[in-house]
């Protein structure tokens, strides 16, 4: 009995490779089927967007001409998009500079309380966004700061720094510091060494960190929702639409968002190698 | 004369600059201070404010009372202990309720029910654990395939394909899940072929939908760390084990799997924490029976309007997450 079980078990593992291919294919299907269905349905000729009724591009044409399709107002969507880009760009610039400096400090210096400080740096990545959003809301309330895109940028930087720092610090661990010593021995000062030796070598890390920070900011709904006041961002606008139910207008906006972001990221990964 | 003192002054300046440049702390301070300032003021201070609020009380009109006489542990007490009972009774009620829920057949161990907040907390932990287990069961074989069996030149492409959805908008992907699970969708029509699925059935607004959404969003976080630890394993060890008489299962279980454990642990923490703290996924995919602690916290700051209770709930949730990280570190895991 035991022997039979062991043989069956071993046989299963002998055929493992074939099963694993099937399993892997299944997971890719799981990851991409919903996206494929979403994109397909955005071309669906039906007001009740789930059942396929034939191909049409009329929802795209209508939205691109500025007409409202099933409560989705393209002007509002466009303004929300502009807000999102503005916040994300400002956030990326600030957090990339500060986060890279932070990564250097953590990589190169020992200072009292370093372990504790490193823990604090990881916290914004780990804590639930809802806690972060609400605590910022309370803070801005108490400090009497008017909510708006400004406060959204401030809040986003608070988690952006951590993402950049973690990614850049990982890159710095493989960095060969004798290169810097060589540059200094050859007469470069600190700034020249930084400009011509250090930065070019860790550029992929900084780029990856900035890309991650941008995605986190652009995609964030929960934190932004609490700290942006009356303004809109694309995720907030989209969430409002989704709450009202499935409709062709939402399908088109969703398909556009996902195709554009995935294309941009695919291009970035093509140039930089895999990033995460 | 004036020129001379000027020279002298710049000499002192240059000396000062030299001293500052040589000082061992300069680099650390310059590089640290912007981030330390930002994290201190816009991350730690807000958390401190929220922590302070969690000791407050709600006034008659939903305002927050924070005067000295209102401060206390009453919100935490309200969270954990049903009214008119003691800590011990509450503890027993919680344990009994957990046993009743997990073990089938046992119905009423305790007359007192734990508070709805405690039930919600454990339900969220349950969702988080289930999402972790499912992600592991589904993701591990895949990571193994990509890291060990797939041809080397496709590995990068395969792993990029795992990450790519993670970069695409979270809300849009949740909406895509809605499209699949709604009545009459492609998937549901396909499932209607099965005898026990009714025509026009929908899987939306259910606990299943929430779990599926959690796994869908967070499974890349399981696959990536497992993949990177499997990729580093020296598979000649497997051959060695089999030469010494182990069959394939034993070689995997005793030799390969233990070496991939760091990845599994990192992946588990990365899936568990955001899943247990989710609020958007249950809000969009779940029904009234599948809301989680994150939704409770949000509603206390919205429609329910009890900020101190919401703040207390937030810190209880953070406590659970710290515990899971502590467990991870005890198991030998490292941050980062």
TrEMBL record, chain B:
<feature type="transmembrane region" description="Helical">
    <location>
        <begin position="209"/>
        <end position="227"/>
    </location>
</feature>
<keyword id="KW-0472">Membrane</keyword>
<feature type="domain" description="ABC transmembrane type-1">
    <location>
        <begin position="121"/>
        <end position="328"/>
    </location>
</feature>
<keyword id="KW-0813">Transport</keyword>
<feature type="transmembrane region" description="Helical">
    <location>
        <begin position="181"/>
        <end position="197"/>
    </location>
</feature>
<feature type="transmembrane region" description="Helical">
    <location>
        <begin position="307"/>
        <end position="328"/>
    </location>
</feature>
<feature type="transmembrane region" description="Helical">
    <location>
        <begin position="157"/>
        <end position="175"/>
    </location>
</feature>
<dbReference type="GO" id="GO:0055085">
    <property type="term" value="P:transmembrane transport"/>
</dbReference>
<comment type="similarity">
    <text>Belongs to the binding-protein-dependent transport system permease family. CysTW subfamily.</text>
</comment>
<dbReference type="GO" id="GO:0005886">
    <property type="term" value="C:plasma membrane"/>
</dbReference>
<feature type="transmembrane region" description="Helical">
    <location>
        <begin position="36"/>
        <end position="55"/>
    </location>
</feature>
<dbReference type="InterPro" id="IPR035906">
    <property type="entry name" value="MetI-like_sf"/>
</dbReference>
<dbReference type="InterPro" id="IPR000515">
    <property type="entry name" value="MetI-like"/>
</dbReference>
<dbReference type="Pfam" id="PF00528">
    <property type="entry name" value="BPD_transp_1"/>
</dbReference>
<feature type="transmembrane region" description="Helical">
    <location>
        <begin position="264"/>
        <end position="286"/>
    </location>
</feature>
<keyword id="KW-1133">Transmembrane helix</keyword>
<feature type="transmembrane region" description="Helical">
    <location>
        <begin position="126"/>
        <end position="145"/>
    </location>
</feature>
<keyword id="KW-1003">Cell membrane</keyword>
<protein>
    <submittedName>
        <fullName>ABC transporter</fullName>
    </submittedName>
</protein>
<keyword id="KW-0812">Transmembrane</keyword>
């Amino acid at each position: 009995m035991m022997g039979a079980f062991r043989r069956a078990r071993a046989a299963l593992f002998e055929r493992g490779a074939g099963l694993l291919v099937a399993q892997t294919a299944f997971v890719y299907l799981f990851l991409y089927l919903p996206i494929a269905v979403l994109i397909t349905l955005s071309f669906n000729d039906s007001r009740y967007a789930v059942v396929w009724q034939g191909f049409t591009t009329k929802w795209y044409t209508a939205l691109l001409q500025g007409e409202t399709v099933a409560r989705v107002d393209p002007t509002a969507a466009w303004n929300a998009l502009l807000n999102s880009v503005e916040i994300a760009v400002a956030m990326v610039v600030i957090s990339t500079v500060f986060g890279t400096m932070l990564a250097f400090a953590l990589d190169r210096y020992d200072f009292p309380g370093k372990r504790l400080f490193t823990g604090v740096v990881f916290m914004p990545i780990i804590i639930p966004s809802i806690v972060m959003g609400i605590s910022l809301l309370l803070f801005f309330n108490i400090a009497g700061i008017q909510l708006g895109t400004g406060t959204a940028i401030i809040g986003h930087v608070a988690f952006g720094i951590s993402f950049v720092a973690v990614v850049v610090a990982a890159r710095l661990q493989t960095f060969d510091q004798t290169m810097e010593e060589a540059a200094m021995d050859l007469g470069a000062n600190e700034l020249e060494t930084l400009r011509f030796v250090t930065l070019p070598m860790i550029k992929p890390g900084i780029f990856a960190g900035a890309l991650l920070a941008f995605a986190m900011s652009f995609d964030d709904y929960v934190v932004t929702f609490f700290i942006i006041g009356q303004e809109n961002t694309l995720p907030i606008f989209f969430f409002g639409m989704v709450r009202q139910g499935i409709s062709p207008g939402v399908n088109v906006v969703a398909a556009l968002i996902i195709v554009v972001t995935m294309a941009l990221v695919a291009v970035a990964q093509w140039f930089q190698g895999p990033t995460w | 004369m004036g020129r001379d003192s000027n020279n002298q002054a710049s000499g002192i300046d240059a000396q000062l600059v030299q001293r500052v440049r040589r000082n061992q702390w300069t680099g650390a301070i310059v590089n640290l201070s912007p981030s330390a300032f930002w994290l201190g003021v816009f991350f730690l201070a807000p958390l401190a404010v929220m922590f302070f609020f969690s000791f407050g009380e709600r006034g008659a009109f939903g305002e927050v009372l924070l005067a000295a006489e209102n401060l206390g542990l009453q919100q935490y007490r309200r969270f954990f202990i049903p009214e008119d009972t003691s800590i011990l009774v509450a503890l027993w009620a919680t344990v009994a309720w957990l046993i009743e829920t997990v073990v089938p057949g046992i119905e009423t161990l305790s007359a007192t029910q734990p508070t709805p907040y405690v039930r919600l907390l454990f339900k969220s932990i349950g969702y988080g654990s289930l999402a972790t287990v499912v992600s592991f069961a589904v993701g591990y074989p895949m990571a193994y395939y990509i890291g060990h069996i797939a041809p080397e030149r496709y590995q990068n492409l395969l792993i990029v394909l795992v990450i790519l959805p993670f970069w695409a908008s979270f809300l849009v992907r949740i909406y895509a899940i809605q499209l699949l699970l709604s009545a009459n969708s492609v998937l549901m029509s396909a499932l209607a072929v099965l005898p026990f699925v009714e025509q026009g059935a929908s899987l939306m607004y259910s606990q299943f939908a929430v779990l599926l959404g959690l796994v869908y969003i967070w499974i890349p976080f399981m696959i990536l760390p497992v993949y990177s630890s499997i990729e580093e394993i020296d598979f000649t060890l497997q051959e060695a084990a089999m030469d010494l008489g182990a069959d394939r299962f034993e070689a995997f279980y005793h030799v390969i799997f233990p070496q991939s454990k760091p990845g599994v642990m990192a992946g588990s923490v990365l899936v568990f924490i955001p899943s247990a703290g989710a609020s958007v996924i249950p809000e969009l995919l779940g029904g009234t029976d599948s809301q989680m602690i994150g939704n409770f916290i949000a509603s206390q700051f919205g429609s329910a309007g009890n900020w101190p209770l919401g703040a207390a709930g937030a810190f209880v949730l953070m406590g659970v997450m710290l515990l899971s990280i502590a467990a991870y570190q005890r198991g030998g895991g490292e941050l980062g």
